[in-house]
Amino acid sequence: MSEKIKIEKNTVAETLVMPLYGRADCSKKYPAVFKDREAERIIDSIDYDFSQLTYTSFVILSWAVRKHFLLGCARAYLKEHPRATIVNLGCGADTCYEELDNGLCHFINLDLPEVIAAREQFTKCHEREKNVGASAFDLSWLSQVETKAEDGLFVMSGGVLFYFEAEKIRSLFKSLAEKFPNGGICFDAVNSSGLKKSNKVVEKSGNKGARLAFFLDDAKKELSSWSPHFDVKVVRALDKSIKKEKSIPFGTRFAVNMGMKMGFMQFVEIRFR
Question: Are 190 and 265 in contact (CB under 8 A)?
Fold first, then answer.
């Protein structure tokens, strides 16, 4: 049996494995809706005292719900564009290749170089998959896309974009739409109330570098105004399969669903046209 990977406190690697831990936990507890074998495998390969974590069931379920949405959008896109490139923007230690691979598409895991270096401790790339260390806003990473523009490009981004200013995000989206007019992007977002609540938690923690900046109070209206080429869909309720899954405590399901209805957590998909 190979030696486990030691994760030290207050390192980049530690921040990467937290959402992964949440998804692995939900995979073990609620496999009917959140089966994630790779997350389980990676967490089982790590030497870290997870018993010290104090995340609420709301937060842990939210991580799994987020990936469920992102994968659903990517699967739908691949049915229409089977040779597309799927980009996991701000990938961290997240894995989605095995859940999405159709034998034809390509994958790019995109994050800052130091994050990619940490990621490579936990998981290796498969065929037609590559890690790219770069800022999402430095579009030179598009040179790593191996498929033709007409084959399509679809971006997934979870837990990332709300840390950046709206103008930066708008510029990225418009550039992607220009280069891949049949492409798209899906991501999670907060409204102004959710942003304030999150930043209060950040302030109490003393982590001044993790303040949220981007929010959407009327996502469809606001994002559609960015470009006439954006077709925007907003999801503010749990998927029926999750809402009805009785193995998940009712209180947790209810809290996450209410958080989405109130816009504290919402999911957005934009198709470019």
Answer: yes
Tokens representing 217 are: 């109070």
Strand ranges inside 194-237, DSSP E: 230-235
174 Ramachandran zone, left/alpha/beta (phi>0; psi -120 to 50): alpha
Cα separation, 177 vs 69, whole angstroms: 21
In whole angstroms, give the CA distance from residue 56 to residue 212: 20
CA dist 39 and 250 (Å) reads 24
Residue 65 CA to residue 114 CA, distance in Å, equals: 27
Rounded to whole angstroms, how far apart are CA atoms 51 and 53?
Answer: 6
Higher per-residue pLDDT: 220 or 121: 220
Percent helix, strand, coil in the chain, to 5, is 50, 15, 35
Q: How far apart are CA 258 and CA 121, in angstroms?
A: 37
Burial class (CB in 10 A: 0-12, 13-18, 19+), 107: buried
42-54 burial code (b ≥16 CB/10 A, e <16): bbeebebeeeeee
Helix/strand/coil for 271: strand
Place of tokens 């010290």: 52
Scanning the structure block, which residue is given the tokens 């490579």? 120
pLDDT tens-digit map of 194-209 = 999 888 876 765 556 6
Q: What is the DSSP letter of 46?
A: E
Say which range, 67-71, 122-126, 251-255, has the weakest mean pLDDT: 122-126
Short-list 204, 93, 212, CA closest to 161: 212
pLDDT tens track for 3-53 = 788 888 878 788 888 889 999 999 999 999 999 999 999 999 999 888 888
3-class secondary-structure state, position 74:
helix
